[in-house]
Amino acid sequence: MLKKIEGIIPVMITPFTESGMIDYPGVARLVEWYIANGSDALFAVCQSSEMQFLSLEERVELAAFVKMAAAGRVPVIASGHVSESLEDQLAELSAIAATGVDGMVLVTNRLDAKKEGGTKFLDDLNWLLERLPKDLTLGLYECPAPYRRLLSDDELLFCARSGRFAILKDVSCDLETVKRRVALTKDTPLAIVNANAAIAYDAMKAGSRGFTGVFTNFHPDLYKWMLTKSASNPALADELSVYLALSAMAEPMGYPKLAKLYHQRLGTFACTDSRVINFDIQERFWALDALMDKIVEGTDHFRRRIAAG
Fold first, then answer.
1. DSSP string across the chain
2. 141 pLDDT exceeds 90?
3. What are the Cα distances from residue 214, in Å, to 127, 155, 191, 245, 248?
4. Span 168-226, pLDDT tens digits
5. CA-CA distance, 79 to 212, in Å (whole number)?
6. Are 105 and 77 spatial neighbours (Cβ–Cβ below 8 Å)?
7. Which of 18, 137, 183, 199, CA to CA, is 20 to 30 A from 58?
8. Whole-structure pTM value
């Protein structure tokens, strides 16, 4: 049976130890933080998790660990879909599926990986669908790395009508595209979930069934309030949406290491090392600590206002 995957879905970061291994006690604390802050599902083994820089063994172990740590409290979805050949993709996806995660996410740029065009995307997709477990809930992710590959309307409709897919992580970053996709997938199991902070509130009002952008690593509870409670105070929601959009503009300053620095401050884990970002972000991006202070201050400000009703 297809599982429902929607709401506030953090794209999980992966803490490492100073020796370069995955810090599983840190991952466990991170899972608890996400859940305590209103997350509806967890997206493990995604680009924010540095999946392109994890071995297949690490991707599988990480997906299995997050599923275990969540302990059924929220659904866990995972990708780890990074290979180029279909045979290698099938091997990695089958290994992820065997972990028991609630949903497995296919990366759109891995289908027709060589950009041949024509029907190659659907040909590759059908090849995988014929071989993956038929009862496994699937998702789609327009991952920006190694390049952003947006679904065409016809491809989206095929996936929505197949009955196999529960979610599209929409990376169009375009409100009109989100609106069109919501309309196209109406009365199908496929939820369109936007990943761009600048349009997050407007996308929710247009029918995006949640949010799954990178700043779910900073304040998922604020996005959750905006999704579920904003009708009670639309003026505050408008203010909050501006703050969330501006905060997310810090993403180019060394993310995901940026989010690790934030969680180091919180005490979630100690090491901020990243396999993607191998430079000192505080040295490269001047006043980064001051900016982080302002993000923390703004987050606390809106939490107080929400709590005050």
1. -PPP--EE--B----B-TTSSB-HHHHHHHHHHHHHTT-S-EEESSTTTTGGGS-HHHHHHHHHHHHHHHTTSS-EEE-----SSHHHHHHHHHHHHTTT-SEEEEEGGGTTTT---TTHHHHHHHHHHHHS-TTS-EEEE---SS---PPPHHHHHHHHHHT-EEEEEE----HHHHHHHHHHTTTSSPEEEE--GGGHHHHHHTT--EE--GGGGT-HHHHHHHHHTGGG-HHHHHHHHHHHHHHGGGTTTTTTHHHHHHHHHHTS-S----SS--S-HHHHSTTHHHHHHHHHHHHHHHHHHHHT-
2. yes
3. 31, 25, 19, 11, 8
4. 999 999 999 999 999 999 999 999 999 999 999 999 999 999 999 999 999 999 999 99
5. 14
6. yes
7. 137
8. 0.97
The terminus-to-terminus CA distance of the chain in angstroms comes to 39
Q: Which residue do the tokens 């429902």 mark?
A: 4
d(CA 228, CA 224): 6
Contact 77, 102 (CB under 8 A): yes
Q: Which two tokens stand for residue 98?
A: 């065997």
How far apart (Å, rounded) are the C-alpha atoms in residues 113 and 94?
A: 19
Half-sphere exposure of 164 (CA within 13 A, CB side): 21
**Which residue is it, tokens 């029918």?**
207
DSSP β-bridge partners for residue 138: 104, 165
